[in-house]
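Hi X.,

You mentioned you wanted examples for the new student's onboarding notes, showing what a folding record looks like when two proteins sit in one file. Here is a clean example. The first protein comes first, with its sequence line followed by its structure tokens.
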Amino acid sequence: MRVGILGSGLMGGKLGTIFARAGHEVVFSYSRSEKKLTALAREAGSNARAGTPSEAARDADAVLLAVHWSQFDDVLSQAGDLSGKVVVTCSLPMNDGNTGLVVGVTSSGAEELARKVRGAQVVCAFNTIPSEVLFPVFEARNGAPRPSLVYCGDDARGKKVTAALIRDVGFEPVDAGPLRIARYTEPFALLVGELAYGGRGGPALAYRFVRLPEQE
């Protein structure tokens, strides 16, 4: 699979590296430093390269959007037409101070993104776990049990592609339903962040849902 990374910071850089190491063709883009993009591609291995947002999106089977809410319009304008593309967003609609959500209850950041890229298949995923857990989960991917990772979207193909990427990283995908469920998963991401960065155990935190047998 060809994966374009729009936003090569902590989440985009780590997920892109993992996708490349899992065998996907990856193009890193949208960083303040061209040297950083080149270094990311080099460290990710032979399946990765650096490019512009338009190059990252052009031939991609999936595009990962991993930028701050305030940068959405800029990166989307540089990426170009995303119609027909699977767009996986791990971005949260945070305010400029990263202290709270600016969209919620009656909509979500993922739904607002879908309105901006009409014709794309938007899926919300990877935003309910800290970046610090990504490499440990990938390294332990052949073990059991795997941690869970929720995702949601309105398009069956987009969700299938996203679920495959989630498994490649080392998580067990949990289909939470349509894209409007991002109204709940985005606040849940803030809870996970509070536990990860405000707790005592460190930020490498994951979660797992267990379905128990019903009692008669």
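Then the second protein repeats the pattern, sequence line and then tokens:
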Amino acid sequence: MSTKIIVSYDGTANEDDAIALGRLFARAGAAVSLAYVRHTHEPDRDRETLAENEAQELLARGVELLGVPGAVGHVVTDRSTPEGLAVLAEQQGADVIVFCSDSHTAKGHVAIGNSAERLLEGGKTAVALAPVDLAEGSDGPSIRQIVAIGDGDGGARETAQALAAALGATVAPVANDEADLLVIDSRAETEAGRVSLSASATHLIETAACPVLVLPRGARLSFSPATAPTAA
């Protein structure tokens, strides 16, 4: 089965970067959709209809920007964005939720926003983070070197190898300035199927200049090289 990706999208600053990262996973054969979390139901029927229509229009623009055939948008209503996304991911059988970086992040860097942080503390779904301005350039990000970070019992290396095969990239042994994507295991003492970062992994994310994918403990994601183009 294809890995399922949900991109968190609300059309605000840096959200195009999350779209670009979702498009990258689509190139690797993942099934990608978008989700927008509304925080309240309007008590008035007409106002609720208007709000719902506005949400659908926003998602339609995001799906068009994504440019992936068959991609759909989901409107979720929940007071909490991370909880709403987590529920949707469980309902849809999604493996990864993609976020942009915090709005005050410097260009080319990654920062963990509040919603992503909540899901990185015991969540059940992998979390991917896009650096600021990942969306720059008409061809999207170029992935040549992927770095797996973790131990032998985690799934980072197998996931990195699957992504590399799908994208025509290589897997490097250590993180360096040439890395185009980091795949990070949750720490060894984490409950299986849950996400939790070590201090060193958190530091790597905070200093990263490329997209980051954090896996639940023991998770291994599959990708499909047969449906993805080979990188130049």
